[in-house]
Amino acid sequence: MDRIREYIPKDSLLEQFLLVALLFLIIWLFNKSFKLFLKRAERHGFDRAAIPLVSDLVKYTTYALGLLVALNILGVNTNGLLAMLGAASLAVGLALKDTLANIASGLLLLFLRPFVAGDYIECGSIKGKICAIGLFNTTLETFEGIAVSAPNRSLWGAPIVNYARNPIRRLDIEIGVSYDASLDVVFCALRRMVEQDTSFLKVPPPKFFVSSYADSSINVTVWVWVRTFEYYELKRKYSRIIKDVLDEHKIEIPFPQRVVHLVKEGEEVATSGERVPDFDDLVQDEIIVDGKRISGK
Questions:
Q1: Which residues contact 270 (CB under 8 A, 6 or more apart)?
Q2: 209 phi/psi in degrees, rounded to 5
Q3: 176-195 pLDDT tens trace
Q4: Predicted local distance difference test score (pLDDT) of residue 286
Q5: If pLDDT is split at 50, 70 and 90, which confidence band does 128 have?
Q6: 278-287 long-range Cβ contacts below 8 angstroms, 24+ apart
Q7: Which residues, including other chains, have CB under 8 Å from residue 128's CB and lie 6 or more apart?
Q8: pLDDT, average across residues 210-216
């Protein structure tokens, strides 16, 4: 110890800098260890989307406290500094209003958990699968593989539609059939299609009904309930299979069509009994210019 004191005098500037360096090294090691702890907690059910937010919150807090301790070690009067920051808190709050709103929204998203990692959500114009909730923004990924970074306050300040929150979801299958088709045959074919696939749940029971009478077809809708993680796979699958089912039962899927009535030339005039105006009827008989009458024909 005495040997070290020969090189590093007590209360010297070198000792102070070494203590500050040791302090920040300890903080850095603590943050690294805390990240590993969060990774372990993820294996026991902790939401992985919340890891960046919790990690950043702890990191910035420890570094802020470390900065105050370091200033104290260097002999800076931290009490005066804190008093000055307190007096300027209103101005700082106004200047960082949006940033603080993002932090507060991130904390609310963390504790109330309207979504977790992997959920597909829609919030206003924002759509995508949740990847991570940060201290200031939330990262999402669209179906096209595009990364979206949205401010936390934009997610918290608008209604959130979570497509993955519930374990089951209703799948709507709609198809148009010809007006000549028998609806009993159509419903029988669709019911048999649903009963043959165990991916469709029995409870709630499926429903089959006519949704609308369109210009060219009768639109029939099937409501079936499926597990949420199978929804998009079954939607793609039955968008194709339903045509094969109708073809198998000789049920026509009509093309858009329009009925046009053609009227022969002169037929409309003959039936109306009225004379068609000719060119002479459209020409004025007389024109008066400067008091003189001029014939128009």
A1: none
A2: -160, 165
A3: 999 988 999 999 999 999 99
A4: 52
A5: very high
A6: none
A7: 120, 121, 140, 141, 142, 143, 146, 148
A8: 89
Per this entry, what is the length of the chain?
Answer: 297
pTM comes to 0.65
**∠16-24-57 over CA atoms, to 5°?**
140
Instruction: Determine the Cα–Cα distance for residues 57 and 113; give it in Å rounded to an integer.
Output: 17
DSSP characters for the chain? -HHHHHHS-TT-HHHHHHHHHHHHHHHHHHHHHHHHHHHHHHHTT--GGGHHHHHHHHHHHHHHHHHHHHHHHTT--HHHHHHHHHHTHHHHHHHTHHHHHHHHHHHHHHHH-S--TT-EEEETTEEEEEEEE-SSEEEEE-TTS-EEEEEHHHHHTS--EETTSSSEEEEEEEEEE-TTS-HHHHHHHHHHHHHT-TTS-SSSPPEEEEEEE-SS-EEEEEEEEEEGGGHHHHHHHHHHHHHHHHHHTT---PPP--------TTHHHHHHT-PPP-HHHHS-SEEEETTEEEE--
Cα(197)–Cα(230) distance, rounded to whole angstroms? 13
What separation in angstroms does the CA of 37 have from each of 54, 56, 110, 130, 144? 11, 14, 18, 22, 33
Residue 3 to residue 7: CA distance in whole angstroms: 7
Helix axes of 51-73 and 97-112: crossing angle, nearest 10 degrees: 130
